[in-house]
Amino acid sequence: MPVTEYRGTCPLDCPSACALLVRVDAKERLESIRGNPDHPFTRGVICGKVNRYREIQEGPRIEHPLVRTGSKGQGQFRKASWDEALDIVAQNLRQAMEQHGPESILPYYYGGTMGIVQRPAWDRLTHRLGWSRLEKNICSGIGQAGWQAGVGKGIGPDPKEMLESDLIILWGINAVSTNINLMTFVKEARRRGATLLVVDPYRNRTARLADHHVAPRPGTDAALAVAMMHVLLEEGFEDKSYLAAFTDFDAELRAHLGERTPEWAAAITGLTAAEIRAFARRYGQARAPFIRIGYGMTRHNNGAVNVHAVSCLPAITGAWARPGGGILFSTGDALRINDEPVRQTAWMDPSAVTRLLDMSRLGAILTDTSLAPPVSALIVANANPAASCPDLRRVHAGLAREELFTVVHEQVMSDTALWADVVLPATTFLEHADLYKSYGQNTLQYARPVLPPRAQARCNHDLVNAIAKRLGCDDEPFTWSVSETIERTLAASGVPATDAWNGKSWLDFTPDPDAAHFRKGFAQPDGRFHFRPGWQNTRMPPLPDHWPVNQRDQLHHAERYPLDFMTPPAHDVLNSTFTAAEEARRRRGPPRLWIHPDDAQARGIEDGAPVSVFNDLGGLTMTAKITSDVRPGLCLCESNYHGAEFPEGVSLNALTHGDRVAPAGGAAFHDNRVEVKALDRRGRERTFPVL
Ligand SMILES: Nc1nc2c(c(=O)[nH]1)N[C@H]1C(S)=C(S)[C@@H](COP(=O)(O)OP(=O)(O)OC[C@H]3O[C@@H](n4cnc5c(=O)[nH]c(N)nc54)[C@H](O)[C@@H]3O)O[C@H]1N2
Ligand SMILES: Nc1nc2c(c(=O)[nH]1)N[C@H]1C(S)=C(S)[C@@H](COP(=O)(O)OP(=O)(O)OC[C@H]3O[C@@H](n4cnc5c(=O)[nH]c(N)nc54)[C@H](O)[C@@H]3O)O[C@H]1N2
Ligand SMILES: [Mo]
Question: To test the ligand 1 pocket, which listed residue (13, 137, 295) has its Cβ within 8 A of the most ligand atoms?
């Protein structure tokens, strides 16, 4: 059968943003997806998840608009026409605006697709009608705050420069699972003689490959980094002229670091002082150490402080300036796209700016009876907060409110869609056009649709415009097509139109090495790297330091819930995407609790047996996986799951807290405390005979 091959881009929320080659058969069905070998970062490699994208594309999808028939959350619906469904949605939105004012409507979107045109499409209607705005901090809010404090801009050495490095440090990033293409460069660098060091509380897939694995307690990276700086200064690894010319380093900072010994940090991190010294020396001796920071270490109450402290290391030694040296957190600022044609922020009335509601606290917001106006209509698109949001029991309690109107635009029957009053079918990235940038590499990509929409699915862009029309907004830009909006966005950003891309599906915006290494100064008003983070929040430490504000540091947690508990991303799924696919569920098996043999033995837990994992927020049944890949005192479950995978019917984030994280919000997904109890095979608590 004849097969056509098209170029595409992976839309998923992942730093790789892979360039794809998509094969479609004569019956217009997806045959296969592989990595584009010509793309400078993808280099022909993609992850297993997208390689198996047929599981979503051809699997059980939402094909028609659905209207709820059962009670909230039961997932019982009847089919409806688009006309009827849009009428119901428009009528409910209008009613909410009339009864409670426009701010009672909250559109909630995040990372289903990262496309520049499709992802934030709801913003233009939000800005036009004065709805509540979403504070989008769930993923990068904490990390960005920590990075901005020192460096000031989201750029850094291109990952390709790893080939020139002799020491690669992957710090709180599980690249084998979360950024597979980075490993292409890590592997090549190692062939050329570089050493790989991984800093991660557990032996994840990336740590397994490393030459050295440093495993601190979660949330203690600042203590580790500060003690490393102590050793670097004590043992003469500092670059005095770099510090003087490019940073705000001073005598007070030197005195402060002089007190932060490896012995001090050992008590906090759970590492030995000797390990910390060895790591610091290895760093100091390296010619061009390249640190890649991930998001894992940011997902703590003290995450911003930790990111800032680690970002100080190359400033001490001057490694920042060297080819192959420095530190990368995000490439997001390499290219600034002006997405005004999509989002229309100019419509916001400067004298009456609408409220921002914190996406990481959706549960608290939906259940807050004092919130005025209350959220009375929730539009969810491109996100699955009923699985991906912290403090999940409260999210579900909010979604259960009888007077809340919820519309969900989805490809699959997600946890959130189950709670909807109206579900609308969404296209996949193979069925709509978009532009894509990346936060882990430096290209801008364009992808056109290669398949017709499945059944009645519509893309985000078209749906927003259809609802806008029903609410009386039938003028520009609600009349623009997807391609018109794409071209206008490129023009507004000073980027050539797609037909001038010389037949390519990407443009390369890799910053020049002087900019990427801040060789002419940092992106701060004084042009210097800031060891003093200058937090507005005065509770935060004024100098790089350990900040004890995590769940472990809160006494009632420490005593009642003796184990640290993390929920790092799993290899086979992406956030909650893929968790609804039957094949993915079967491959992954039941949710597993990784627990150290000592902790398991102390609780009478056997490998493979059911356990109850609980804290003040909730309790979940999991299957014990006894392993020394986690340190004593630490347990974890790789996320995420469909709620149906747990007997409790609610997903993993039932155990993660939704407290607002300093300085600017965000979710501390890996900063939790729990206790674990053995259950018998029927799920009852096991009792032990008293000997
Ligand atoms: N397969 C897969 N890929 C993904 C995702 C997914 O869910 N699955 N999600 C995508 C998204 S949206 C994002 S933002 C990225 C996130 O990907 P990463 O940047 O890799 O971040 P995480 O996976 O959250 O965490 C990475 C590692 O940090 C560790 N960690 C946790 N706490 C600490 C700490 O205090 N210190 C240190 N040093 N390490 C710590 C965790 O154990 C974990 O191994 O991945 C993207 N790619
Ligand atoms: N426990 C725990 N929870 C986490 C994390 C963690 O480390 N641990 N990581 C967090 C991180 S980093 C992030 S970024 C968030 C992400 O959280 P979300 O943004 O909620 O991402 P997903 O859970 O993947 O859900 C995205 C949904 O969008 C749908 N979708 C995909 N494409 C489209 C489209 O074009 N249109 C529409 N309308 N829908 C579409 C998908 O089917 C999917 O159900 O999750 C967070 N949740
Ligand atoms: Mo994310």
Answer: 295
Q: Which helix (H) or strand (E) holds 365?
A: helix 362-366
Q: Are 128 and 343 in contact (CB under 8 A)?
A: no
Q: Classify 441 as helix, strand or coil.
A: coil
Indicate which atom in ligand 1 lies nearest the CA of residue 204. 44
Probe residue for ligand 1, chosen from 178, 183, 279 as the CB with the greatest number of ligand atoms within 8 Å: 178
Q: How many CB atoms lie within 10 A of CB 671?
A: 26
Give the model confidence (pLDDT) of 534-552 as tens digits. Answer: 999 999 999 999 999 999 9
For Cα atoms 326, 435, 334, give the angle at the middle one, nearest 5 degrees: 20
- Whole-number Å distance, alpha carbon 403 to ligand 1 midpoint, is 37
Q: CA 460 to CA 482: how far, in whole Å?
A: 10
CA distances from 289 to 136, 176, 283, 386 (A): 33, 20, 7, 41
Q: What is the distance in A from the centroid of ligand 1 to the CA of 296?
A: 4
Contact between 173 and 295 under an 8 Å Cβ cutoff? The reply is yes
d(CA 156, CA 517): 6
Whether 636 is in the pocket of ligand 2, judged by its Cβ within 6 Å, is no
What H or E segment, with its residue span, contains residue 107?
strand 105-109
> Does the beta carbon of 669 lie inside 6 Å of ligand 2?
yes
The residue assigned the tokens 């996100």 is 383
Select from 174, 183, 441 the residue to mutate for testing ligand 1; criterion: most ligand atoms less than 8 Å from CB: 174
Ligand having the closest approach to the CA of 179? 1
Across 460-557, the runs of DSSP E, i.e. the strands, are 506-508
In single-letter form, the type of residue at position 297 comes to M
Give me 193's structure tokens.
């003689």
What would the two tokens of residue 589 be?
């098996």
**C-alpha to C-alpha distance for 604 and 367, rounded to whole angstroms:** 38
Give residue-wise pLDDT tens across range 294-346.
999 999 999 999 999 999 999 999 999 999 999 999 999 999 999 999 999 99
